[in-house]
Amino acid sequence: LSELLAKTEKYDVFLICEQITNLDFDHYRKVKKIIQKKDATEIATFDKNFNIDFYILNNEASTYLETYNSLGKKIIGIFHGVFLSCIFTNNTSIYQQWYRLNFYDAFIQIIPDDYYIYKKFNFENEVFIPNLYTFEPSETPLSSLSKKNVLIVGRIDDAIKGAVYAFSETLKYLPDATLNIVSPVFPQNIINLVQELGILSNVNFLPYSKNISEAYLNTSVLIVSSLSESFPMVMNEAKAHGVPIVAFNVDYSP
């Protein structure tokens, strides 16, 4: 979204980050990466120096919400969480955050399920906008689907264990198959599991890539092993490359 806003050349786009990451935004023409501490005074100075018109917050994660509101600026929130998943997982945090929704001039739901739920609670500042394409399908090359490669892309957690076990079973029938996992971080327990199953030679742990298209073109199937999802970008990316997807049809966000 930051890249597309910058490409319009109608906006100067800044990214306020709480820590330095290995993500590289240098190739975005007008995006400037700003590293800020959790200090309301610094935010106020930044806002004054650059005359910010509005703030976009990702997934209700910002600790600066009240600060932005006190500056009198427009605030837009983009929500990736799934409301009903909190009921199924006994996670009450979403209820505790509801009072904060009144700070937003608009908050965006990326799946229709949640949009209609929040509408029933009479939130007038809610908007439904599905996730954008990072690859234009008509301009994206398609995978040949000829390689015995399986792909997982994204933030890794315990939900991936099932996919690892399933892949180990697959090797009984396709011993030369490969599982490629692309993630910025690899939990040690997942690495240990791969070692315990004796499939380390068939699994590649790949770092974050600025050319993720290569990973999709080199695979025949994408696995999305999440037990709770809203609208993961990797699904858009895989489909743009003609790659089929295996995933759970979770009840609260098919």
Structural class by secondary-structure content: alpha/beta
Shape, please? globular
Instruction: Count every helix, treating DSSP H or I runs of 4 or more residues as helices.
Output: 10
Taken in chain order, the helices and strands follow as HEEHEHEHHEHEEHEHEHEHE
Number of strands: 11
| Distance linking N and C termini | 24 Å
Task: Identify low-pLDDT runs.
Answer: none
Overall mean pLDDT stands at: 85
What's the gyration radius in Å?
A: 20 Å
Give helix % range.
25-40%
The percentage of residues in β strands lies in 15-25%
Sheet with the most strands, sense and barrel status = 5 strands, parallel
- Strands of the largest sheet, in order across it? 9-8-7-10-11
Q: How would you portray this structure in words?
A:
There is one protein chain. With 254 residues, this protein is α/β, with parallel strands linked by helices. Helices cover 30% and strands 19% of the residues. It contains 10 helices and 11 strands. It has helices at 2-7, 40-50, 65-70, 83-88, 93-96, 112-120, 160-170, 188-196, 213-217, 233-240, and strands at 13-17, 31-35, 54-58, 74-79, 106-109, 126-128, 149-153, 178-182, 203-206, 221-224, 245-247. A 5-stranded parallel sheet has the order 9-8-7-10-11, sandwiched between helices. The chain has a 4-stranded parallel sheet with strand order 3-4-5-6. The protein has a two-stranded parallel ribbon with strand order 1-2. β8 (178-182), α8 (188-196) and β9 form a beta-alpha-beta unit. The longest helix has 11 residues, at 40-50. It starts with a helix and ends in a 7-residue tail after the last strand.
